[in-house]
Amino acid sequence: MFNYTIRRLLFTVPTLLLISFIIFLLLDLAPNDPTGNLPMTITPEVREKIRISLGLGEPIHIRYLLWLQQFFVNEPLNLIEEWWGIQIGDAENRLRVQSWATRSPVVDLVVERMPQTLWVVGMSYVVGILIALPIGIISAYKHYSWFDQIGTFVSMVGFSIPTFLTGTVLIVLFSVLIDSSSPFWLPSIYDTTHRVTDWSSFVVQVKQMAMPVMVLALFNAAQLSRFMRASMLDNLSQDYVRTARAKGMKERVVLLVHVLRNSLIPVVTVIALGVPQVFGGAIITEQIFKVNGLGQLLIIGVQGADIPLVQTLTFIFAVLIVLFNLIADLIYGILDPRIRYD
Question: Which residues make beta-bridge pairs with 105?
Answer without folding.
Answer: 98
